[in-house]
Each structure stands twice: as C-alpha cells, then as structure tokens.
Amino acid sequence: MAAPNFSSESVLEALNWRYATKMFDASKKIPVETWSALEQSLVLAPSSFGLEPWKFFVVDDVAIRQKLLEFTWKQSQVLDASHLVVLAIKTGLDETDVDRSMARISEVRGVDLESLQGFSNVVKGFMKGIPDVDSWSTRQVYIALGQLMVSAALLGIDTCPIEGFMPDQYDEILGLPEMGYRSVVVCAAGYRLDEDKYAHLPKVRFPVEDKVQHI
Questions:
Q1: Backbone angles phi, psi at 148, to 5 degrees
Q2: How far apart are CA 118 and CA 123, in angstroms?
Q3: Residue 167: is it exposed, middle or buried by C-beta count within 10 angstroms (0-12/13-18/19+)?
Q4: Residue 200, C-beta contacts closer than 8 angstroms, at least 6 positions apart
Q5: Where are the beta strands (DSSP E) in 21-118?
Q6: Any idea where the Nitroreductase domain is (predicted)?
Q7: Is 165 inside a domain boundary?
Q8: What's the domain range around 45?
Q9: Number of domains, the chain
Q10: What is the pLDDT of residues 63-110, one digit of tens each?
C-alpha cells in the first residue's frame, strides 16, 4: 500500500476549516459512500494492544433521536445533523476479549494462535494491573473520536463532539446495558448552516511555541 500524499497545506486547511458545528442543515445528508468511509475511519482507529474496547452506534431513527434530544440539553445538533454517533465502551473488558482479539489476529494475518500466546499473556497481565478497566477503555474511545473528526474534516464534513448529555438516559433509550456497552461521548456529523455564527469566527488557539516544546 502506497503512502498517502496529502500536502501539509491541505491538511492544515481542513483542520482550520473544522470547528464544533452548532447549527446543521437538516436538509443535507452525507452521501452513502462518504459516510461509509467515515465508519471505516472509526473501525481503523488505533487502540492500545489493538483491543478495540468499543462499539459505535449510529442513530438513524428520528424518533429515537427525538427522545435523546431531551437528554442532550436540547442541543439541536442531535436532530439536525445528517448522522449521529454514540461512541461507547464495552463494559468490563476481560480475558475473553483478549482471546477474541488474538483469534482475530490469527485469522487476518494467517498465523498460528499458539504463536500469539506470549503477546496474549502480556496483554492479560497488563489488564490485571488496571485499577478501573472501564476508565481505561473510556480514554481509548477518545482516540476514535479524534480520528472520526479529522477524517470528516478531510472529506469536507462538519462534526460536533458532544459531552453535554446524560449517559444513563442514553444507555436506557438505546438499550446499551443489555448489549454490554456504556455510552461515553456523542458526535454529530453533517453540513453547517451559514447562519451558524461560530462558522465565521477566527479559530482561537495559543501559539505553537506556547504548546509545543522540544526537549
């Protein structure tokens, strides 16, 4: 596979264009092919040991979105965005999940499962030393969120990460506990409205020299 050939300028242009969109155009939908690429960007997100301690729930049902609105402080993005993703962790990650991951490596790379035993032991030993595995998994989810938002920006798709929601209510409405998952963060995706004043404001960041230090 050849290395990608994005220019530095094009990447920075996309990142400067991106902002946390407050107002989406409800009449515009992300094309199927583009959304498929964004779903793949979530699946391709890196995770520690490659365990992928997550699942991404795309809420297509408008009636369900209407219910979620009440528990998202009435933020209109929940209804108006083309797509709404609830990023969730698999609760209580354990050795069974490690075994499943090893089996997948064996399948995809065509290696004997026995040859992965040393790696498996390392991962299981690491997990035994984690005081709160769900907190660890939660931090992993934010890696996937970041990858989704950057990928969207490169494709000209607007996003808005949403932490202002009530996870317990979301979980109940979506039936996540029965599936063994718990919501962590929400991301709306679609197309901005020109009336969104935040789309026209300069991006505020401290200078690079204030935030990046070479040692």
A1: -60, -45
A2: 9
A3: middle
A4: none
A5: 54-58, 83-90
A6: 16-191
A7: yes
A8: 19-191
A9: 1
A10: 999 999 999 999 999 999 999 999 999 999 999 999 999 999 999 999
Domain presence at residue 122: yes
Whether residue 167 lies inside any domain: the answer is: yes
If 0-12 CB within 10 Å is exposed, 13-18 middle and 19+ buried, where does residue 169 land?
Answer: middle
Pick from 96, 99, 81: nearest CA to 35: 81
CATH number at residue 77: 3.40.109.10
pTM for the predicted model, two decimal places: 0.97
Q: Closest Cα partner for 162 from 193, 185, 146?
A: 185
State whether the Cα torsion 179-51-164-40 is positive or negative. negative
Beta strand 158-162 with 83-90: parallel, antiparallel or unpaired?
A: unpaired
Dump the DSSP string for 139-179. HHHHHHHHHHHHHHHHTT-EEEEE--S-HHHHHHHHTHHHH
